[in-house]
Amino acid sequence: MSSSLYKQMGLSGAGSPLTGRHVALLILGAGFLALTVFVVHPNEFEIQSFFAGGGSSSSCDRRPGTDTAAAAATSPHGATTTTTTEKELAAARAPAPAPDDDDDDVRVLIGIQTLPSKRARRHLLRDVYSLQAQEHPSVARGVDVRFVFCNVTSPDDAVLVALEAIRYGDIMVLDCAENMDNGKTYTFFSTVARAFSGSDRRRRPRRRYEYDYVMKADDDTYLRLPALVASLRGAAREDAYYGLQMPCDTENFYPFPPFMSGMGYALSWDLVQWVASSDLARREQDGPEDMWTGRWLNLAGKAKNRYDNAPRMYNYKGASPDSCFRHGFVPDTIAVHMLKDDARWAETLAYFNATASLPRSGGLYHLPVPAASP
After folding, report:
1. Burial of 173 by CB count in 10 Å (0-12 exposed, 13-18 middle, 19+ buried)?
2. Can you give the C-alpha Rg of the chain in angstroms?
3. Which of 117, 193, 217, 313 could form a cystine bridge with 264, CB 3.0-4.6 A?
4. Which segments carry the region annotation Disordered (predicted)?
């Protein structure tokens, strides 16, 4: 290094603590540090950004472009201080924008009526539906699944149900005595109407309500959520009643006005609100819940848009003879009912290839490969 450079750096003259050798060593060390940071480990800055919240955060927590906006707000020169390269990096790291929530994006709340003691069944259903949502992201955006009880009276069950509510956030405990055909369904619909009415306008201003449809389902029903959503997408959003219509013939049922089978049926949001405000529904709660829901709508002249999904919704056949509501599996199934035990669930899930995503390499899963569905 020349003596003039020493002078510019203030390192020459008597009493200077640094010699030319010292300065050369400092420059060599700085060069090595720059080589390590920018050439050997160029991604260290990205890792730091990820743990600081600038990486793959959820679109619910962070909107695309907020990093750039924050930088512009804190910079004395505004957004113009961001270089083209930095903008490109920020765009690459930002999460993809969520799809617009407009009237074409169907939203469904499914309330599965069950009992506090049936924990194993709830965990099975969580596995089944979370895997469907994982494989079909539109399902995750469009469907909420809740497990519905009336008041929990056992202290032990109360503790365990509370743990589930904290862990999974999918529990609804209604203010009623536990029952099947004495008002639980009425309480479910009326509670949902009050709990979710208008709540969605804060998050989706273009929508008038949280859900387009509310579905009551049994815990022995297997729903194929992508097929359900696709089917509902083409249905009316008002005055709509959706399910497997009964009676489906004149031989297996006594004469009764039409209703949708309790295996799983949906009402459009306006009908859910009507149930909550109806004196007729409030007075007449004691009776087979699916028949009585149809009865309310029939007597009030409601549900002019009715969707009978036979043969895509049906009971498990087993050794029973075929009927208009019971038959073997079909590929375009929406729902299978009467899955009363694990053997029936396993047979059904195998037919629909629910374990297709299981890794077949690595030697960790020595399981037989399920037979392919026809």
Report:
1. middle
2. 31
3. 217
4. 55-84
Three-state secondary-structure class, residue 133: helix
Confidence (pLDDT) at 44: 41
Helices (H), 15-154: 20-35, 44-49, 66-74, 84-93, 119-135, 137-142
**Residue written as token pair 């149809």:** 294
Q: Give just the sign of the alpha carbon dihedral 106, 112, 116, 122.
A: negative
* Mean pLDDT of the region 51-72: 35
CATH architecture for segment(s) 108-197+209-245+258-310 = Alpha-Beta Complex (3.90)
Q: Which of 295, 325, 293, 298 is nearest to 309 (CA)?
A: 325
Structure confidence by residue, pLDDT tens digits, 242-293: 999 999 876 655 567 899 999 999 999 999 999 999 999 999 999 999 999 9
Q: Tokens 């730091």 sit at which residue?
A: 48
Which amino acid type is present at position 294? G
What are the residue ranges spanned by the domains of the chain?
Answer: 108-197+209-245+258-310
Side-by-side strand order, sheet with 108-113: 171-173, 143-149, 108-113, 213-218, 264-268, 240-243, 305-308
Distance CA 60, CA 22 (A): 54
